Amino acid sequence: MLRGTGRSGARSAGVLLVVGAFLVSALVSACGDSTDGGDDDGGERLSVVASTALIAEFAREVGGDAIDVQALIPAGVDVHSFEPSTRVAAEVASADLVLVNGYNLEEGLLAIVVENVGDGVPVVAVSAGLEPRAPVEGHEHEHEGEQHEDEDPEGEEHEDDHHEGEEHDDEVMSEAVDALTFAEGDPHFWLSVPNVISYVEHIRDALVATDEANADSFNERASAYIARLEAVDDEIRDQMAAIPEGAREIVVFHDAFGYFAAEYGFEIAGSLAPGNPNQQPSAQDVAEVVEIVEEHGVPAIYAEPQFSSPLIEAVASETDTRVLVLHSQPGPDAETYEAMMRANAQALVEGLGGVA
Fold first, then answer.
1. What per-residue confidence (pLDDT) applies to 156?
2. Which residues of 279-313 are buried (b: 16+ CB within 10 A; e: fewer)?
3. N or C: which end of the chain has fewer CB within 10 A?
């Protein structure tokens, strides 16, 4: 069940799903000019802005040469520490379509999106409709519940004023972005391949609704990409079968792998930095992970290459365990989503597959 926040939980959940429904009823009229200039007609390509490099990759797979895609958060940059520049506002302002993950992954970006997105330009949450896991402990949103209402009364008043004077489409947009900002839930859906297939379907539908002239191309490319993703999913499941049932506990640096573990039959036994991965773990955090590794007999600790922490090596030395790598985003040694997920499966087999 979708969880609410300090505002009405039902309102936040419902509005998140409105983003997907809004595609069918509003996108065509909102971006009608783009349909007249599709790639097949030699006109300007659709300008798509994605919040992250991964979402941009998915959009590029579906859109091909019919679209131009820009990622607001570049590849290899941690979304938790990203500080937007003036470039971000300019790219949002020129977009025909904005794609975001949702569930507050883009906390530092959504205010810029709201302020700069063009009139009638849709902001689409690609995670809409997916069942969220509980928020990672220590990673709850700063502006939830009464804290938001008490500390930012001006923002609340501004929202009310907005709703009173705007037409329905603008009201839906405001509510959708608001729901994305304050919705509770672990945002790391993409570490489950079936969830990414849902992302791709949302992107396909958004592109088709925005640029009907290229609908056939978008549908064909989406189908081909989904087939590749289904093949990756099958490969991962086959590889995971080599890991004994009693050895399916993992310890990670950053608690981003809940959907991965749930999808492929694992349990996250512990995390060195369960909340913000850029925050130095406390001595108590380290001691707790050491205890978990020793009690559960975990043979490997999984680091993430974009986060540097000498404490991982300290835990490994203390417990005589190996340090291997899991990716939460593509990097130099796994440059695409498909390569990243295959590398993650291989790392788990390497670390856990030989355990009796």
1. 39
2. eebeeebbebbbebbeeeebbbbbbbebbebebbe
3. C
